[in-house]
Amino acid sequence: MVTVFTVLTSKGCIRETNAVLHFLQYRFDPNVSCLYRDAEQVPLRPRVAQLLAYFLAHPNQIVTRETLLSTLWQHGEFREAALTQSITELRQALKDNAQQPTFIKTIPQQGYQWICPVESRTFSTFKLTTTMKAMFVVGAVALSGVAASVYLVSSSAPVVTRVKAEQDSLIIVPMVNETGVQANAWWGYALEAALRQHLQSHYQLVPRSQYPELAENSAIKQLTLSLKPIQQRFLLSVTYGDTQSEIIVEQLDESFEAIATEVIAQLALGVDTKTAKKSSLNLAMNDYYRGVQALNEQGPQLAKAYFEAAVAQMPEHLESQLELAQICWQLGDIDSATRRFEQISLSSASTATRARYHLYYGEFFKARGLHQQALQQAQLALDAAEQSQQVELIAMAYQLKADAFWVLQRWDEYQQAMSSAHVLIGSRSFAYSEAQRSFYLANPPAAGPAEKTLLNLEKSKPVLAQAIAYYEQTEQTMNLIKALFAYGQNYLVPVVESEPSLLKALALAQKNGYHYLEKQILTYLGFYYIQLHQGEKALRYLNEINGEPRFIPSYEQQQLLIGMAHMDIALQTGDTDAMQSAITQYRMLLESDYISSVTRANVKLLLGWTWIKAGKLEFAEQLTIDAMHDYQMLQLQEVETYALYTQMYIHLLRNEPQQALEIITAHQHTNSHLLLLYGVVAAEMLNEEALQKRFSDQLAGLENSQLLQQQLLQIRQQSSIDKHFIAELIDAPYSVYCQSKWTIN
């Protein structure tokens, strides 16, 4: 150990008295924001040090999250997630257990409380004056067996004699099953769980969902496992860095706990397995892990049978009960799922299990359109996840909150929740859940199609491509389906790639009985083919869905898209039967009492477009005015623009260019292609050269406007402009009911 001595001249120094805060084996110097455990400095980020200082200044007080945010994070869209992350880091630095805290106690629905006694002790230091320069004589003396901590006597930060190394990140790679029997893969899930139990306090374990992104990161250590048969037994090969080992496994039973202990010992992973807490495992756990394997690789029907077998042998096993409740509703059995969720007791549950319970229950409420209840469960999940200090669970809770805020039209809170998820897990937070919100009138994005500040398609595209390759290689069917589905929904993926991706996801979901995912993919395929103006094909997929009316959001969406598919056929071909089917479907939706306010506004606009095609402008005008008012109430500015330029188009068809110009000149945001296009046409009809040039220049400045500028050239070549030329030569408002034809091409 090296001790640093510092000698100061007697001149040019001033004496100061400082207070250092002591608690158990720790001391914290608030003057230099340094924390020490005995003689070791514990590294802290500046914000985490400020958080500790605040707690120490307010011991035994219940401090709300709002107070901490207003004190330490006054600005920034990531405040909530930053606080959560800092609490987690501080607990890790103090080796505190959120479930049995020594220092920081979580008070559910209130905040946090510092519960450890704090003692303030003073000491004297010398500080240099600004007029005199101290002369330093520094000597290094090697000592053995002596623990000492000596500071530079100056206004600078202390010299660290020994710094605690941060925990290494570790990926436990899913076991490669080389036995030739797929059913044996369950043992790998069980072994991984046992290894995680032993290693979680010594390593930063990377969640499974992050493996595709981080597998090639050489800075992160990996523990790899493979199992193959050998002389009526099994050979487990394990690798950690440059260390390799092989273990003979006599039979695949509950021995995974003992094998995990042997793996840790042989690889010298630094865990004392003698004192480590042993899991209470028995033969019934075999069925539980077989269920986990089946759920990931073979489908929910087989998984359900295994979880039921586990519960039959272990009636109090919460994890099996929870998976059964989730599987029941995803297979369409709402009553059984409700009963199972209500019967689960959390009195003996770990914080991680409580978090998963509230996440699963919240997803169940969301699927039934009960978004306030989903939001309540999301908050309970977030509270439990923060106590468990598992980043993945915290991020999932934020995503569930975002889903609820989306439907409740609480846009600012939605963006904050998604930003928090992004801070915690990066672009993966957009890859799946956000992809499902990316189609326009079927489910309009909060920021509008033109600017999705959170839907970062560019970042999620390579993440998903990487995930697809990884899940194919590791045969993780459910995750592969989700990755293929999200990749197919990404607008930046060309049709030659997105269509096969969606169809492959559908085939896998149908083959393996993932019925809930199958319905989601079928619904999106309906919209996908409407985008491509293939209404007949869209109807074929939409009619495959056996909709459950009690799953209100998905049922509503399916019915809306059926109307859009009929409308697409009518708009593309003029088929009167298809047009009547669209009108009937939209009217049925408007007369129903289950659709959301957003969908009701969308249906009014879509029905208005259908009436324009049918030549009933008076019907169309009233519907678009009503839709515009609804969008204004819902603060959906981009879709409100659809209603505005639809009204302009109606005025142009009626030879009322002045009324059309009044709409665009009164509108503050004129960055819409069709709004500007119709503005140019109206100005041309009135010979308003200044307005015509202004709108033309604005349109030319927008991306993908070349086709519209060609249409304007054709209009200008006409001796006079009437409704026939308008209808024939320029795009109608319903040319953008999916994306827009000048963008999708």
UniProtKB/TrEMBL annotation:
One of its GO terms (molecular function) is DNA binding. Keywords: DNA-binding. It comes from the Bacteria. CDD domains: trans_reg_C. InterPro entries: OmpR/PhoB-type_DNA-bd, Sig_transdc_resp-reg_C-effctor, TPR-like_helical_dom_sf, WH-like_DNA-bd_sf. It holds the Pfam family Trans_reg_C. The keyword S-adenosyl-L-methionine does not apply. Residues 18-116 bind DNA. GO terms for biological process: phosphorelay signal transduction system; regulation of DNA-templated transcription. Residues 18-116 form the OmpR/PhoB-type domain. This is Transcriptional regulator.
